[in-house]
Amino acid sequence: MLNKVPEVFLLFWIVKIMSTTVGETAADFLAGNLGLGLTNTSLIMAGLLALVLVVQFRARRYIPAVYWLAVVLVSIVGTLISDNLVDNFGVSLWTTTVVFAGALTATFLAWYRSERTLSIHTIVTSRREGFYWMAILSTFALGTSAGDLVGEKLALGYLPSAILFGILIALVYVAHIKGGLNAVLAFWAAYILTRPFGASMGDYLTAAPKDGGLGLGTNGTSGIFLAVIVAAVAWFTVQQRRADDHEALETAAA
Predict the structure, then answer these.
(1) Terminus of the chain with fewer CB atoms < 10 Å: N or C?
(2) Is residue 5 part of a domain?
(3) Of 117, 35, 30, 107, which is closest to residue 75 (Cα–Cα)?
(4) Domain that holds residue 194
(5) If you average pLDDT over every residue of the chain, what do you get?
């Protein structure tokens, strides 16, 4: 099958960060505002994620709408996994951060041992795609715990936390462009860091002013970000169809 992951460029990172923020705000909205609670919300979202991943795995190529829906749902589920462990089971943020970091490391080690690569440009088998989504889920869960640890447990605050993670992302970019940091390592480092960055931004935008936020609320913030994501995915879809048509013409000409 064709590579199942989109090309990485600026809009990819914008949509990824917004998906991260939507995951943070949507989880809070469903569990709190709608009164579903963490357990019910987790079960519902995990079920939806499983259904979307079935469609994603059955596809033989990258389909923007399916792929990005899976990313948004993974973001929500990753947030809920961390929140459940902390809020329902009393696990400390230090512990969840270490555990999820270990889970991500184990996934990378198993992936590399099996495939001899961690590149997202070679997701062309179901096994590699399985490793890919395991890694993605681990990055979201890790990012949630790390972001909450820095912003709440260490009392850095939402905006300072977002600035801190933003600086770290910028340093990864500079290290890749100027310092020769391996592209695969740079991608995964940035992917991990964009999760707490987006979560911190989501908390900053939605939290009440007395809690250090702007008080925009989860409804408005999630609605705006979802609209942007939908528009971007529509653009991705158009570009993908053009690429498919061009490839079909080249194949016919050959």
Answers:
(1) C
(2) no
(3) 30
(4) 10-253
(5) 89
Q: How far apart are CA 188 and CA 165, in angstroms?
A: 14
Residue 94: partners with Cβ closer than 8 Å, 6 or more residues away: 149, 153
What is the mean pLDDT of the segment spanning 115-125? Answer: 93
Helices 10-28 and 64-83 meet at what angle, rounded to 10? 40
Query: What per-residue confidence (pLDDT) applies to 95?
Result: 96
pLDDT digits (tens, 9 = 90+) for 170-200: 999 999 999 999 999 999 999 999 988 988 8
DSSP string, 22-66: HHHHHHHIIIIIS--HHHHHHHHHHHHHHHHHHHHHH-SS--HHH
Considering the domain boundaries, does residue 34 fall inside one?
yes
CA angle, 79 then 76 then 237, to 5°: 140
Q: Report how many domains make up the chain.
A: 1
